[in-house]
Amino acid sequence: MKRANRQTSTPSKQTATRLMRRVLVVSHNAAQRRIFAIQLQRAHYEVFEAGSVEEALQLCQRCEPDIVLSDWIMPGQTGLDLCRAFRASERSNYGYFVLLTSAREAEDISRGLEAGADDFLTEPVTHGELLARLAAGERILRVEEELRSSNAQLRKALDRLRETQAAIDRDLREARKLQQGLVKERSGRFGSIQLSLLLRPAGHIGGDLVGFFPISEDRVGIYALDVSGHGVTAALLTAQLSVHLSGSADQNVALRAAQTGTDAVSPAALAHFFNNMMLEEMATDTYYTMIYAELNHVTGRLRMVQAGHPHPVLQRADGSVRPLGRGGMPIGVFEKPVFDEIELVMEPGDRLLICSDGITEATNPAGRILGDDGVEAILRTNAFLGGHVFLESMAWSVSEYCRGERQDDMSAVLVEYLAPAEMVQLTGR
Question: Coiled coil: which residue ranges (predicted)?
Answer without folding.
Answer: 140-178
